User: Fold this.
Amino acid sequence: MSQETPIGNLGGGISDEDSKLVDSILNDINSSSGPPQVQQQQGQQQQPTPEQIKMMQQQQMMRQQALAQQQAMAQQQALAQQQAQSQQKMNMIQGSGSGDIMENVKLEAKNIMTVVFLCILFNIEQVDNILKGVSMFVNEGGGLNMQAVFLKSIVIGLIFYVIKTYLL
Assistant:
Protein backbone atom coordinates (compact mmCIF):
# COMPACT_ATOMS: atom_id res chain seq x y z
CA MET A 1 0.00 0.00 0.00
CA SER A 2 1.53 3.33 -1.04
CA GLN A 3 1.36 6.58 0.85
CA GLU A 4 -0.14 9.56 -0.96
CA THR A 5 1.24 13.05 -0.62
CA PRO A 6 -1.10 16.01 -1.18
CA ILE A 7 -0.13 18.02 -4.25
CA GLY A 8 0.20 21.19 -2.20
CA ASN A 9 2.97 19.58 -0.10
CA LEU A 10 5.20 18.75 -3.07
CA GLY A 11 8.27 20.86 -3.70
CA GLY A 12 9.38 22.82 -6.77
CA GLY A 13 9.96 21.61 -10.34
CA ILE A 14 12.36 19.01 -11.66
CA SER A 15 15.84 20.16 -12.66
CA ASP A 16 17.34 19.43 -16.06
CA GLU A 17 19.92 17.13 -14.48
CA ASP A 18 17.22 15.08 -12.70
CA SER A 19 15.19 14.94 -15.90
CA LYS A 20 18.16 13.61 -17.86
CA LEU A 21 18.84 11.01 -15.18
CA VAL A 22 15.26 9.78 -15.26
CA ASP A 23 15.26 9.72 -19.07
CA SER A 24 18.46 7.66 -19.12
CA ILE A 25 17.01 5.21 -16.59
CA LEU A 26 13.87 4.83 -18.67
CA ASN A 27 15.93 4.39 -21.83
CA ASP A 28 18.01 1.66 -20.12
CA ILE A 29 14.83 -0.13 -19.05
CA ASN A 30 13.24 0.19 -22.49
CA SER A 31 16.39 -0.82 -24.39
CA SER A 32 16.64 -4.27 -22.80
CA SER A 33 15.83 -6.65 -25.66
CA GLY A 34 13.48 -9.58 -25.79
CA PRO A 35 10.70 -10.74 -23.54
CA PRO A 36 11.46 -11.28 -19.82
CA GLN A 37 11.45 -15.07 -20.19
CA VAL A 38 14.28 -14.94 -22.74
CA GLN A 39 16.21 -12.55 -20.53
CA GLN A 40 15.87 -14.90 -17.55
CA GLN A 41 17.23 -17.76 -19.64
CA GLN A 42 20.17 -15.63 -20.74
CA GLY A 43 20.72 -14.24 -17.25
CA GLN A 44 20.53 -10.68 -18.55
CA GLN A 45 17.35 -9.52 -16.81
CA GLN A 46 17.92 -6.15 -15.19
CA GLN A 47 15.70 -5.02 -12.37
CA PRO A 48 15.60 -1.29 -11.66
CA THR A 49 17.46 -0.35 -8.56
CA PRO A 50 15.58 1.16 -5.62
CA GLU A 51 17.07 4.53 -6.55
CA GLN A 52 15.76 4.17 -10.10
CA ILE A 53 12.32 3.21 -8.81
CA LYS A 54 12.34 6.19 -6.47
CA MET A 55 13.32 8.51 -9.32
CA MET A 56 10.56 7.12 -11.55
CA GLN A 57 8.01 7.62 -8.77
CA GLN A 58 9.23 11.18 -8.25
CA GLN A 59 8.97 11.88 -11.95
CA GLN A 60 5.42 10.49 -12.02
CA MET A 61 4.49 12.64 -9.01
CA MET A 62 5.98 15.70 -10.71
CA ARG A 63 3.98 14.99 -13.85
CA GLN A 64 0.81 14.70 -11.78
CA GLN A 65 1.68 17.93 -9.98
CA ALA A 66 2.28 19.73 -13.28
CA LEU A 67 -1.03 18.44 -14.64
CA ALA A 68 -2.85 19.59 -11.51
CA GLN A 69 -1.21 23.01 -11.81
CA GLN A 70 -2.28 23.28 -15.44
CA GLN A 71 -5.85 22.39 -14.52
CA ALA A 72 -5.84 24.93 -11.69
CA MET A 73 -4.52 27.61 -14.03
CA ALA A 74 -7.20 26.80 -16.61
CA GLN A 75 -9.88 27.09 -13.94
CA GLN A 76 -8.44 30.39 -12.75
CA GLN A 77 -8.39 31.73 -16.30
CA ALA A 78 -12.02 30.68 -16.86
CA LEU A 79 -13.04 32.33 -13.59
CA ALA A 80 -11.14 35.50 -14.47
CA GLN A 81 -12.84 35.59 -17.86
CA GLN A 82 -16.27 35.21 -16.25
CA GLN A 83 -15.47 37.98 -13.80
CA ALA A 84 -14.32 40.25 -16.62
CA GLN A 85 -17.55 39.61 -18.54
CA SER A 86 -19.60 40.31 -15.43
CA GLN A 87 -17.65 43.52 -14.86
CA GLN A 88 -18.29 44.61 -18.45
CA LYS A 89 -22.02 43.99 -18.01
CA MET A 90 -22.02 45.94 -14.75
CA ASN A 91 -20.16 48.81 -16.42
CA MET A 92 -22.70 48.87 -19.22
CA ILE A 93 -25.60 48.88 -16.76
CA GLN A 94 -24.02 51.58 -14.63
CA GLY A 95 -23.04 53.58 -17.70
CA SER A 96 -26.57 53.59 -19.04
CA GLY A 97 -28.13 54.35 -15.66
CA SER A 98 -25.77 56.93 -14.23
CA GLY A 99 -24.15 58.19 -17.41
CA ASP A 100 -24.75 61.39 -19.27
CA ILE A 101 -28.51 61.87 -19.48
CA MET A 102 -28.22 64.09 -22.53
CA GLU A 103 -26.30 61.37 -24.39
CA ASN A 104 -29.08 58.88 -23.66
CA VAL A 105 -31.70 61.40 -24.80
CA LYS A 106 -29.79 61.90 -28.06
CA LEU A 107 -29.65 58.16 -28.64
CA GLU A 108 -33.38 57.77 -28.04
CA ALA A 109 -34.47 61.03 -29.72
CA LYS A 110 -36.42 59.33 -32.51
CA ASN A 111 -38.40 57.19 -30.08
CA ILE A 112 -39.07 60.12 -27.76
CA MET A 113 -40.25 62.35 -30.60
CA THR A 114 -42.50 59.59 -31.95
CA VAL A 115 -44.22 59.16 -28.57
CA VAL A 116 -44.61 62.93 -28.14
CA PHE A 117 -46.11 63.26 -31.63
CA LEU A 118 -48.55 60.38 -31.08
CA CYS A 119 -49.69 61.76 -27.71
CA ILE A 120 -50.33 65.20 -29.20
CA LEU A 121 -52.14 63.66 -32.16
CA PHE A 122 -54.46 61.57 -29.99
CA ASN A 123 -55.23 64.41 -27.60
CA ILE A 124 -56.55 66.90 -30.15
CA GLU A 125 -60.22 67.82 -30.04
CA GLN A 126 -61.11 66.02 -33.29
CA VAL A 127 -60.06 62.63 -31.88
CA ASP A 128 -61.98 63.33 -28.66
CA ASN A 129 -65.09 64.20 -30.72
CA ILE A 130 -64.83 60.89 -32.59
CA LEU A 131 -64.71 59.00 -29.28
CA LYS A 132 -67.58 61.08 -27.84
CA GLY A 133 -69.72 59.73 -30.66
CA VAL A 134 -69.64 56.35 -28.88
CA SER A 135 -71.75 56.52 -25.70
CA MET A 136 -69.60 53.92 -23.97
CA PHE A 137 -66.67 56.42 -23.80
CA VAL A 138 -68.62 59.42 -22.42
CA ASN A 139 -69.10 60.19 -18.72
CA GLU A 140 -72.06 62.04 -17.15
CA GLY A 141 -70.37 65.43 -17.59
CA GLY A 142 -69.97 64.94 -21.35
CA GLY A 143 -66.21 64.34 -21.21
CA LEU A 144 -64.27 61.19 -22.02
CA ASN A 145 -64.15 58.47 -19.33
CA MET A 146 -61.26 56.19 -18.36
CA GLN A 147 -62.25 53.63 -20.99
CA ALA A 148 -61.60 56.21 -23.71
CA VAL A 149 -58.22 57.14 -22.15
CA PHE A 150 -57.32 53.47 -21.93
CA LEU A 151 -58.30 52.91 -25.59
CA LYS A 152 -56.23 55.91 -26.73
CA SER A 153 -53.17 54.70 -24.80
CA ILE A 154 -53.46 51.20 -26.33
CA VAL A 155 -53.75 52.66 -29.83
CA ILE A 156 -50.75 54.96 -29.19
CA GLY A 157 -48.71 51.96 -27.96
CA LEU A 158 -49.62 49.84 -30.99
CA ILE A 159 -48.83 52.62 -33.46
CA PHE A 160 -45.52 53.31 -31.70
CA TYR A 161 -44.62 49.59 -31.91
CA VAL A 162 -45.38 49.50 -35.64
CA ILE A 163 -43.43 52.70 -36.32
CA LYS A 164 -40.44 51.60 -34.24
CA THR A 165 -40.38 48.09 -35.73
CA TYR A 166 -40.85 48.96 -39.38
CA LEU A 167 -39.79 52.60 -39.79
CA LEU A 168 -37.15 53.53 -37.18
